[in-house]
Fold:
Amino acid sequence: MAPARPDPLGSALPLAAAPMAGGPTTPGLAAAVAAAGAFPFLAGGYRTPEALAADVAAVRRTGAAFGVNLFVPTPCPIGAAEYRRYARELQPEADRHGLDLSAVPLTEDDDSWRDKLDLLLADPVPVVSVTFGLPWPAELAALRRAGSRVLVTVTTVGEARAATEAGADALVVQGSDAGGHSGTHDPLRPVTPAPTAELTRAVLAATRLPVVATGGVDGPRAVAALLAAGASAVAVGTLLLRTDESGAAPPHKDALADPAFPGTVVTRAFTGRPARALRNRFTDRHDASAPAGYPAVHHLTRDLRRAAAAAGDPHGLHLWAGTGHRSARTGPARAVVEGLAAGL
Ligand SMILES: Cc1cc2nc3c(=O)[nH]c(=O)nc-3n(C[C@H](O)[C@H](O)[C@H](O)COP(=O)(O)O)c2cc1C
Structure:
């Protein structure tokens, strides 16, 4: 048997709260999972550098080790014509909330990547994880020099090899059952089925780095299976979405347990990047025609999704969910961690 690889997180339990940008991850959620013995990730994506700095300060006050996750910027692959076509297609959704999508300019942004890196270099945290791609080698090296362990999210063996060569300390292996955005480094590649345990084994066979496995966990048996596959730790997202400390929108929390939602789909409809969500009116109507236009499509639909959430319409927003969503329970996050740790 191959020797065990070092645990890149070092928490009491081999469990982590996956980063969930857009509201669900809160400093309170991070503190609660840390108090229960799991490793918390803060979600730096979509946050302003100032808001992220405040989140970091809040979690640091707990004394727990933690990680910060960032989105690696990627160029928007679509042009104005394709963007405008999709804006026209979505206008009936916007009409429900009195919004005019023709007024939303095609926005390219890097999610303040450089400023967030500067923040983490000036005020280092124990772990930095990234998704959507690879940082430049110099950026990765700078984070490591500052004292952070750098984890790169990968969805294929090829991405795992590239992240290893780029100097990552460890890999977050995300299977295709995961809720939310795929971390794929190539958003034009269709997300093909890749069960997390299989992908973990394949990545471990191809690289020397330790792995945090994530995607589709629905209970302690799934955790045990991923650890048996060789993962050093297992990160869960969806199972924490309905907890007291989660900042997910109430219609999102409710839909995860609502039998009226028939299952999950991987769709570009909301942001232009493939993401697993509960199937709803929006995915049924727009999945097939949505362009691969992240981040422009994210900006196009943002106010529309916010308005749907405020109006309590679960069919008008992105209900990110992994395949284990039926096992997501309400109550304190501590109870989720304890339930997953049963039998470890
Ligand atoms: C609501 C939501 C938001 C997410 N946001 C991020 C994010 O900001 N960064 C990231 O690397 N992964 C993000 N993910 C993916 C998770 O980190 C993780 O890969 C996924 O939740 C694991 O699958 P599971 O949801 O089946 O547990 C998100 C997932 C969800 C459900």
Q: What stands out?
A: The pocket of flavin mononucleotide is lined by residues 18-22, 24, 43, 45, 69, 131, 153, 174, 177-181, 183, 214-217, 236-238, 320, 322, 324 (CB under 6 Å). The chain has two domains: 1-73+110-240+329-344, 81-108+257-320. The mean pLDDT is 97. The CA atoms of residues 61 and 210 lie 28 Å apart.
